[in-house]
Amino acid sequence: MRGDRIMSADAGTAIIGGGIVGLCVALGLAARGQDVLVLDGRDRDMRASQGNFGLVWLQGKGAGCAPYARWSCQAARAWAGFAERLSSQSGIDLALCQDGGYEFFTDRQEFEQFCQDLHRQADTLGNEFSFECLGHSDLAHRLPGIGQQVVGATFCPLDGHVNPLRLHVALRKACLASGVRFTGDASVAAVQPATSGFSILCENTKTIHADRVILCAGLGAAQLGPQLGFRAPIRAQRGELLITERVADRLPFLSSTIRQVDEGGLQIGGTKADADVDIESTDQMARLARHAMQVWPRLADIRVLRSWAALRVMTPDGYPIYQRSADHPGAFLVTCHSGVTLAPLHATRLADWIDGDPAAPDLEAFDERRFALS
């Protein structure tokens, strides 16, 4: 039966986008026995998968959206097993460290508001979620050397981080080992419903035919989505990072804006700007450095070696979109900005949903039609 499908089309399922999200979906569908072809773009394409901070993060996720809080919590709890399986399949250590993380605040009002958000998150998740809100004195006792301007911090024991570049490579190797096929330099210009399945036109004039098509193209889905009946309300948000020299002493904490990677250097990040170009801003870089020194003054003597900017993939409310096309059955839209955190579920439960498994989760809360009602 699988051979018959390949004879009538180039792929049973074509996934447009070879980033972390697309590779996770490909891996999950391959595990279900599907014939999968990933269409990957050019090396110079803007990729959130290669510019992100690498966080596995739960704090604040879904404080105002219970389904997203539960989805994120399931993902965070699944990460240890997912990393073990992926390392076994690929031979790559993902450098997962999930010992808990901090959110630091220099503004008291923001600190108090975030603590309220975490209480709302806890109301949804119950015993699955725990956190601490620490004033400056308690924080200084736990982390001697914390900056005097830090008024408080929150801590969640489920938060952690990975090496996102290793994750990307490991996913690709695991996909190849699972029978997933790849077409590189395949920038997609158009997707058209055909008499049977879909025709995918690449900019190099090659046309690929598939029974199903899944858009995991990040920002590119904003252009391709409407061709398949999706609204695809996706926008770019620029984030910027500083990278320091390697530091022998281990940083005694992980935060959403400061982390020490497994090679020893520090990443400092946290900017958010509505922009569609991945070009750094000197003012934003200076702000990042100031904030890092406010949190941990010892960083003042560490050299910054390089910096970069990358574009996040954002929806209007910040939550994922998982959508079946009502106009063209067999077409799907998958997009989110938390591709690292949600990776374990994208590689399992989301693949179940795409395949229509009766045991798949109910993902109606992430239908893009929610925006038409707002």
TrEMBL record:
The chain crosses the membrane at residues 12-31. Pfam families: DAO. Its EC number is 1.-.-.-. The keyword Ion transport does not apply. Keywords: Membrane, Oxidoreductase, Transmembrane, Transmembrane helix. It is an enzyme of class 1 (oxidoreductase). Gene3D superfamilies: D-Amino Acid Oxidase, subunit A, domain 2, FAD/NAD(P)-binding domain. Residues 14-353 form the FAD dependent oxidoreductase domain. GO terms for molecular function: oxidoreductase activity. The keyword Chloroplast does not apply. PANTHER family: SARCOSINE DEHYDROGENASE-RELATED. This is NAD(P)/FAD-dependent oxidoreductase. It comes from Paracoccus fontiphilus.
